[in-house]
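If you are new to this repository, start here. Below is one unmodified record pulled from the training split, so you can see the exact layout before writing a loader.
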Amino acid sequence: MKIFKPIVFMVVMFLSVTISFGVHGQSPVKRMSPDALVKDLYKQHDRKHSPFFQTRSRALLYKYFEKSLADLIWKDAVTSRGEVGVIDGDPLYNAQDMEIKNFVINSPTYEAGKARVNVSFENLGQKKSIVFVLANGRSGWRIRDIDYGESGTLAGWFKKTP
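And here is the target side for that same chain:
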């Protein structure tokens, strides 16, 4: 029994270090909550570092979006070459002209392994609501789609375009 306790202690310590620093000795990845990820996306977007129309870093898209949606956004940015592509306005406000007021990112709701984050604001005097649908994967929460209500969804816009 005296030998068993130190072995158990060593195994527990090894596992906790492995879990804390990752299998490959990397620092642990900071996982954001769904609403924190959406907030960070808006923050980057407002700083003119938006991942949507840039063609320098696909990794920037993967930080926020699931791979399949990120790849569609990347392809649109690359193939449109600065012209209007599938995304023909600002996808975070679903508008081409903006005068944003009363901007609120609400707490997420969870259902069936997904999260929904409602963002509401006024644009040019009209109340708007956008819902981000997120899925939790190996690298944390990522945006699976953006639901614009009557205007459809971001993923749906790509399906409509040949």
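Two things worth knowing about this chain: Strands lie at 100-105, 109-111, 114-123, 126-137, 140-147. Helices lie at 4-21, 34-46, 58-64, 67-80, 154-160.
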